[in-house]
Amino acid sequence: xxxxxxxxxxxxxxxxxxYCAKALESEGYRTIVxxxxxxxxxxxxxxxxxxxxxxFQLGPPTPRLAGHxxxxxxxTGVGLMKKALAGYPDLRVVLMSAYGDQxxxxxxxxxxxxxxxxxxxxxxxxxxxxxxALYAHATPSVQQDALPEAVLVPRAHPRFQVxxxxxxxxxxxxxxxxxxLSLGGCHIQSSRLVRxxxxxxxxxxxxxxxxxLKINVxxxxxxxxxxxxxxxxxxxxxxxxxxxxxxxxxxxxxxxxHG
Length: 259
Description:
- Helix content is 26%, strand content 31%.
- By secondary structure, it is α/β, with parallel strands linked by helices.
- The protein has 2 domains: 6-146, 3-Layer(aba) Sandwich (Rossmann fold); 151-251, Thrombin, subunit H (Beta Barrel), CATH 2.40.10.
- Strands 7-8-9-12-11-10 form a 6-stranded antiparallel barrel. Strands 2-1-3-4-5 form a 5-stranded parallel sheet, with helices on both faces.
- Strand 7 and strand 8 (174-181) form a beta hairpin.
- The relative contact order is 0.11.
């Protein structure tokens, strides 16, 4: 079975490195950790890294003694990103920071290509951003190869009117009610404000089930006051099969909508 891509995590906080590594390894990713830019660049030359996750402000590799200057300037996360992309242009990059949106205006940063993950963040939010960075802009053939155990669900499916509780996490977190459900997506009624093209992870509670269905990656396609529409982008095989069985049961008692 093919492994998921290798992710390089760079942060001068050892607890943050461990936290990120454990969150991604639990999803099957191979991780490499570095505490500074120099070690990270060395790791890039020795390992097949597909995604770089780096803190925006990186500390120096060793403390500087008073009265002693450094032979080379210390690279920040953005400096590391620039050097890494110069040598590995296909590398995906995610930046982490405790600071706010003002960092998005930093020269050399493109928030569409290098998303900013704000600290503190949940492990689920990290996994969502990683999935988005690696797979959201891939071609269909690349997506199929990258996610061998997942089902990339097409949009055209019969839809059923339901009334099930749902929790969503990611760049926006909240809860609501699913009012329209298919294999390809759903409508969610919620007071939370979301924007089109926002990526979310969804936990859907079906009747008579203890474990909710987890939609790993879903994207907001449209919004209206109090409701928004999601397209499911990454669904694990077991979850897809559970949802298909449930919708098949609904089809025997509830008319489906195809429009």
